[in-house]
Amino acid sequence: MALGLLAVTSLVAASCGSDEPGGGEASEDGTGRTVRLLTYDAFALPEDAAAAFEEATGAAVEVVPAGDTGAMLAGALLGAGSPEADVIFGIDNTIATEAASAPLLEEYLPEAAGALPEGLSAPGEVAGRLTPVDTSEVCVNVDREWFAQQGLDPPATFDDLAAPAFSGLLSVQSPVNSSPGLAFLLGTVETYGEDGFEEYWRRLRANDVRVSPSWDDAYYNDYTVNGGGRPLVVSYASSPPAEVVFSEGARRQPASTVMAGTCVTQVEYAGVLAGAKSPGLARELVDFMLDERWQSELPLTNFVYPVTDVELPEEFRRWAPRPEDPILVDAAAVGEARDQWIEQWRNVME
Fold this sequence. Notes:
Elements: H1 5-14, E1 25-26, E2 33-39, H2 47-57, E3 59-65, H3 69-78, E4 87-92, E5 131-143, H4 144-150, H5 158-161, E6 170-173, H6 179-192, H7 197-206, E7 210-212, H8 215-222, E8 232-236, H9 239-245, E9 256-258, E10 264-272, H10 279-288, H11 292-302, E11 305-306, H12 314-319, H13 331-349
């Protein structure tokens, strides 16, 4: 699916040298311009793509980290209308409806967004304000080497995770403050229904599931691949290639596989913040996030899947093929019931 790279590049270049208020602020030394990108702490700027954007526009991308996804959005809502940045990135489909609770976002979508696959658009009131940039699948990761050493077949389904054979082996994140934790909860709601997911969590609790406060804690402290004591962890379909990439040659293949039946799709969006000091540059940056150069860098910088039809790197093709039938939650329904489902979860687990 070609998204018209030439058209996007021409659009970016056309505004260079603009004197309109959206033309960007001068940098401290007065020699350039900046556009500020509000995002979560774990975001890694695609450096080569950002350099291409700066070459085309004369504007450097300045990343403004703001905690995890929930903290980022909460802070942005508090400052709605007087933002500390120009663009926000990292709102996902599990919390997107919260962005409509204040005048947070400017009405804007790039022309290229019209060519994106169906099902990625933001819900309801924010549909014309949030642009899909990447997707990821939250899935249970399995330390296959641990299971092989134990002579135990790994689990394959949500039901298996609650079976006595896997007692004390699973680490999940709290949906109260963790994005993958919330996605996993939504997967259980989708699988067992609003009337059945609480009973499923009672089964997990009885099976000694560990609830960690964050993805970092669950993945780096609990998971056996990283020296912890639990060989099952809620993470991402793209975590296995990350094991190889970040091993600096120590690993030739990942220790992990994923439980495809537990995969829940997350879509991450970018939007222009209302009241941005550089609205013109903000729109150009959102446009550029759908450019081939930005999209091609996402897999090996942030370990997510691009939303455009760019070739995936070899590491993804070998070790992170897209799950064939992931759970795609109804973002509008989530917006209506998310707080209630989290409270029901808390009643069971806390």
